[in-house]
Amino acid sequence: MIEIENVRKSFGTLEVLKGINLSIEKGEVLCLIGGSGSGKSTLLQCINGLQSIQGGNIIVDGTNVHARDTNLNTLRQKLGIVFQQYNAFPHLTALENVALAPRVVKKQSRRDALDLAREHLDYVGLGSKADMKPSGLSGGQQQRLAIARALAMKPAYMLFDEVTSALDPELVGEVLDTLRKLKESGMTMIVVTHDVAFARESGDRVAFFDQGVICELGPARQVINDPKEERTRQFLQRVLH
Amino acid sequence: MFNYTFYWSIVWEKFPELLQGARITLEVTILSMIFGTALALPLSLWRRAREGVGHAFATGWVELARNTPALFQVYMVYFGLGSLHIHLPSYFAMVAALTFNNAGYLAETFRGGLNSVPPQQLSAARSLGMSAFSAYAYVVFPQVFQVVFFPYVNQLNWALLNSSLGMIIGLRELTGATQAAQSESFRTFEFFIVAACIYYVMAKAIETLAQLASWRLFGR
């Protein structure tokens, strides 16, 4: 379970998170929607400690992420994250991309790590691309590679940061299919997305972010089909039309 | 004008001396590259810092090394320090001067290499649970290495050719040895043709080995 309590985050004088409260249950898919600069991507990076916070607490399975004595390297093995810009390691093949962290972080043997990597590449449909470098893969394939790489660490939670925003429209589907497959497997996911249709169909709950606060939080269908807040309604009208 | 007669036999007699010089040339080159690399690493990191004493120091070093003739740098170390009663043997003076020059150029090469790796690569590695050390060792530096490989080899060749400046401070590297040998016989043309060939072979060997290493390491 991830508990987010009154989290505040500033970049210099700009406050991007102004007291966020959220909790994510095991097996839940929570989608974060909202305009650019509303703070949703920043929140994801705070959850796995890539960004510091100025106030509040983020507790992952009882561990306070931003406490001084927390070992972030250990904690991050629980929290897979996939970024908008894929960030595949360009000097390694697809297989090596996935095998690297299990070898280096979990000290698995080379053979075990490679077997694990093959399994996860198959899972995202990239089994036939194992020996290719990322430069030879399409955006959608690189993004699925990034998902496989995160999954190979066997995380308890997966964080997705606008994973389809940089993709050509015809490549979005293959990545979303992977996310749906993960949801069916029971993975706990926090998905920052601009894809409102995906949020409605695959999200259990949706949180609408506006100017650093959660403006509306509720069951996905309700928030998107029948928003209670005027600001949510305005946002949805802008993105749906 | 074209009735110059070549006498090669005198060159072959002295050939072992030239080879001995070539050995010194290689030693000075390799030592100055090793020390230059070791200094360039912290210099490049200081250069990346936006301010501070380290930044100012590194910037001064890079500016001087890259914007003054290598010949002046050799003079400064040998005669300049000599005026301050610090008398280095010409061998060490040459290694020091070339080290200064190499470090200046390599610092910029390394800085460019580090800048070429997007910061998100580090975030991606850290987000998988890698320590900062592992992230740099397995993700960032291998990419930097690929980017700086050929510029690094260029600097190695440049150092090899620059080491010929050793002659002016009395070092018997290849050029110094050639100068000494020809001054006894005045067969300047023959000696320097042979010396040029030896330089060419050494430089070409470095280039070829680098190309082979690149195919092996990077597949290109």
From TrEMBL, chain A:
Membrane keyword on record: yes
Superkingdom, natural source: Bacteria
CDD domains named among the record's database cross-references: ABC_HisP_GlnQ
Name a GO molecular-function annotation. Answer: ABC-type amino acid transporter activity
A GO cellular component term found in this entry reads: plasma membrane
Q: What SUPFAM superfamilies does the record tag this protein with?
A: P-loop containing nucleoside triphosphate hydrolases (SSF52540)
Instruction: Kindly state which keywords UniProt assigns to this record, in alphabetical order.
Output: Amino-acid transport, ATP-binding, Cell membrane, Membrane, Nucleotide-binding, Transport
Against Gene3D superfamilies, the record matches this protein to:
P-loop containing nucleotide triphosphate hydrolases
InterPro entries found in the cross-reference section: AAA+_ATPase, ABC_ATPase_HisP-typ, ABC_transporter-like_ATP-bd, ABC_transporter-like_CS, MetN_ABC_transporter-like, P-loop_NTPase
Matching SMART domains: AAA
- Give compartment(s): Cell membrane
The record ties this protein, via Pfam families, to: ABC_tran
Give the membrane topology, semicolon-separated if more than one.
Answer: Peripheral membrane protein
Q: Where is the ABC transporter domain?
A: 2-236
What does the record give as the function of this protein?
A: Involved in beta-(1-->2)glucan export. Transmembrane domains (TMD) form a pore in the inner membrane and the ATP-binding domain (NBD) is responsible for energy generation.
Protein family per UniProt? Belongs to the ABC transporter superfamily.
Query: What name does the UniProt record give this protein?
Result: Amino acid ABC transporter ATP-binding protein
Q: Which organism is it from?
A: Bradyrhizobium rifense
Automatic annotation (TrEMBL), chain B:
According to its record, what are the GO cellular component terms? Answer: ATP-binding cassette (ABC) transporter complex
**Higher taxonomy:** Bacteria, Pseudomonadati, Pseudomonadota, Alphaproteobacteria, Hyphomicrobiales
Q: Which UniProt keywords apply?
A: Amino-acid transport, Cell membrane, Membrane, Transmembrane, Transmembrane helix, Transport
Query: Organism, per UniProt?
Result: Bradyrhizobium rifense
Protein name from the UniProt record? Amino acid ABC transporter permease
Q: Does the keyword ATP-binding apply?
A: no
What family does the database annotate? Belongs to the binding-protein-dependent transport system permease family. HisMQ subfamily.
- SUPFAM superfamilies in alphabetical order: MetI-like (SSF161098)
User: For the ABC transmembrane type-1 domain, which residue ranges apply?
Assistant: 22-210
